[in-house]
Design a protein that fits this description.
With about 475 residues, the protein is α+β, with helices and mostly antiparallel strands. The protein is built from 11 helices and 17 strands. The chain starts with 6 loop residues before the first strand and ends with a helix.
Length: about 475
């Protein structure tokens, strides 16, 4: 495993190029619960930049970060709690941290070992370890760390989770890259409207000194990337949507995907390739999605690896974007958190004795049911009892899915090519925390960043029900 030593060379504050025209933004009922969560840490591994020295690279990145902040003035501000207890983002142009670091003993190849755990040195590529979002009252809301490597660079971005969700995070990161690449006008301007159902007069009270983290930050864990190709995920989706249909793995041939207009799925029967019927595929598409199928398989396999009692209840928690679920819809680029958490529960015995279709069906039903009325009920429920969002695996049987393979993570081309990989820091990680990223090749492939206890991870690696799909 490569050494995790990283040398900090310099640190400075970057200010927006233009002064903010927004005074403040009040945190919503979707923002406030995140004040007990740690800052989001996500970044991109890039090939060697085409600059003569690091000065040119840093000058470009600082200038473009300054310009990008002018489009995202909230990120250059600080949190403030008013006399009534409402928490606001003061858009006061206080600036963000910019850190230059070096780890020239590390190569990009060493950072991407095949079929091995994620090297712990990635944790050193981000600022604000163990920092709760509440601390944005006196710390910058953003820190960008640029780490020079032997043959590449890692750009790590850390942002306050009470200020952004994944949608807003990646819009900022993509815009930063877009500006660095030379765009004169950004393509996706954030929407700072606060006239939404999430805006509320409800007040969330905090203990003196602010909230505490809700999970152990010292727990020994393993972290590993599991890659699933488009073909593998389509196999899972087919199984999830066709309970009782008998076929072996060889009967769905990857080389035949994409040869029909019906999402490219084929079945081999009696040595003859037969397209799935339009009716079958229409039913499947209207029912359980590819991602729900993948989540269901992961839930089953991790639960089995944990060796839990059959009577124990297990929970799969999934964050969903509410922007398109509300009526009327929020703007797709609404800035802030617009997410809610969907818990799906089952007994361990049921989950493991029934098939993939049954498990995926549970997840699917909950996601489909999370409509406008459900979102609004969730808001009212929170208003009746304002509370922080508890992160963690409190009973040893929970899985929490975060991020999304739909986020445009590989659109972060700063001018010299797409990222080689997307990675995260140590923030908000505990046994059972999973993060979904798009695969680098796109086309529906998915990378799951899986965080588990060592014994559970070993069990997962030996679970052929899921490992047959991993490449």
């Amino acid at each position: 495993m490569p050494s995790s030593s990283v040398l900090i060379i310099s640190k400075c504050t970057v200010y927006p190029e233009c002064k903010s025209t927004i005074n403040s933004l009040k945190l919503s009922v979707s923002d406030l619960p995140m004040l007990s969560c740690q800052y989001i840490q996500k970044g991109v591994l890039l090939s060697q930049p085409p600059f003569d020295d690091s000065f040119d690279l840093l000058t470009l990145l600082k200038l473009c970060l300054s310009r990008t902040l002018s489009h995202f003035p909230a990120l250059a501000g600080r949190l403030n709690t008013d006399s009534q207890g409402h928490v606001h983002i003061l858009c006061n142009d206080a600036g963000v941290d910019f850190v230059h670091a070096k780890a020239i003993h590390l190569s990009t190849a060493a950072l991407l070992p095949p079929n091995l755990d994620i090297p712990p040195c990635f944790r050193k590529f981000f600022q604000y370890d163990n920092t709760l979002s509440y601390e944005g009252h006196y710390k910058p809301l953003v820190a960008v760390q640029v780490t020079e490597l032997k043959d590449g660079v890692f750009i790590g971005c850390t942002i306050n989770h009470a200020v952004v969700d994944g949608t807003s995070f990646w819009n900022f990161f993509n815009t930063f890259a877009e500006v660095c690449k030379g765009a004169k006008k950004i393509s996706k301007s954030p929407n700072f409207s606060r006239e939404t159902p999430f805006d509320s007069p409800a007040v969330l009270r905090f203990p003196a000194g602010g909230p505490s983290v809700t999970f152990s930050i010292d727990e020994p864990l393993r972290e590993k990337i599991f890659h699933f190709s488009r073909e593998a995920i389509l196999k899972m989706k087919f199984r999830a949507n066709n309970p009782g249909r008998k076929f072996s793995d060889s009967e769905i041939e990857p080389e035949n995907f994409g040869k029909t207009t019906y999402n490219g799925e084929n079945v081999r029967s009696n040595n003859k390739i037969t397209p799935v019927t339009e009716n079958e595929l229409a039913k499947a598409t209207a029912a359980i999605s590819s991602f729900q199928s993948l989540c269901a398989q992961l839930w089953r396999s991790v639960t089995r690896a944990r060796n839990l009692d059959a009577s124990k209840t297990t929970t799969f928690r999934m964050a969903v974007n509410c922007r398109h679920r509300l009526e009327p819809r929020l703007e797709p680029l609404y800035f802030g958190n617009a997410i809610q958490s969907i818990p799906t529960v089952a007994s361990v015995g049921e989950l493991l004795s029934k098939d993939l279709s049954w498990c995926a069906g549970l997840l699917h039903q909950n996601v489909v049911a999370h409509d406008n009325d459900t979102v609004r009920r969730g808001i009212k429920d929170w208003e009746s009892n304002p509370r922080l969002f508890p992160l963690g695996n409190f009973d040893g049987a929970m899985i929490t899915m975060g991020s999304s393979p739909r986020f445009p993570m590989y659109d972060n081309d700063f001018g010299w090519g797409r990222p080689l990989a997307v990675r995260s820091g140590r923030a908000n990680k505990f046994d059972g925390k999973i993060s979904a990223f798009p695969g680098r090749e796109g086309n529906g492939s998915v990378d799951l960043e899986v965080v588990l206890e060592s014994e559970t991870m070993a069990g997962l690696e030996n679970d052929m029900e899921i490992m047959q799909y991993v490449s």
